[in-house]
Design brief:
By secondary structure, the chain is of the alpha+beta class. The protein has a single domain, classed as Ribosomal Protein S5, domain 2, CATH 3.30.230. The protein contains four helices and six strands, in the order E-E-E-E-E-H-H-E-H-H. It has a six-stranded mixed β-sheet. Strand 2 and strand 3 form a beta hairpin. It is elongated, with a radius of gyration of 18 Å. The N and C termini lie far apart (about 55 Å).
Length: about 130
């Protein structure tokens, strides 16, 4: 969830698939750093970058917040989704009026879809072995 610290920083957690993102948001110049690297370098795909920074532009805080994200687990799509949820939760604590637009856009809802486990006797979660008549 999200908590505010004494230094004026907000810490939030976002999860998606098997990725976990710990997000720190404070007032600044609009810089986004993911795992010690700029967001353009960490997420080469534009789709993933827009997913993370789209939360800021949606509520109009794109140029006045510094964001540091520590993310691990999963792939790039899961990590981008986890970052998005963490940033949205942090902004909700920082700016109480931004809660409704974020909720309406679905940015505060955790995506609960996970990978289905493999079952015994099958080749995957649902795929069985190929039927052989002879």
């Amino acid at each position: 969830m999200a908590t505010a610290t004494a230094s004026g920083e907000v810490i939030a957690t976002g999860r998606r698939k098997s990725a976990v993102a710990r997000v720190r948001v404070k007032s600044g110049t609009g810089q986004i750093v993911v795992n010690g690297r700029p967001i353009d370098e960490y997420f080469p795909s534009i789709k993933d970058r827009v997913q993370v920074s789209g939360v800021l532009s949606h509520v109009g805080h794109a140029a006045d917040l510094d964001i540091r994200i520590r993310v691990d687990g999963g792939g790039t799509a899961g990590q981008a989704g986890a970052c998005r949820l963490g940033v949205a939760r942090a902004i909700k604590i920082l700016d109480t009026e931004a809660s409704e637009p974020l909720r309406a856009a679905g940015m505060l809802t955790r995506d609960g879809r996970m990978k289905e486990r493999k079952k015994y006797g099958l080749r995957g979660a649902r795929r069985g072995t190929q039927f052989s008549k002879r």
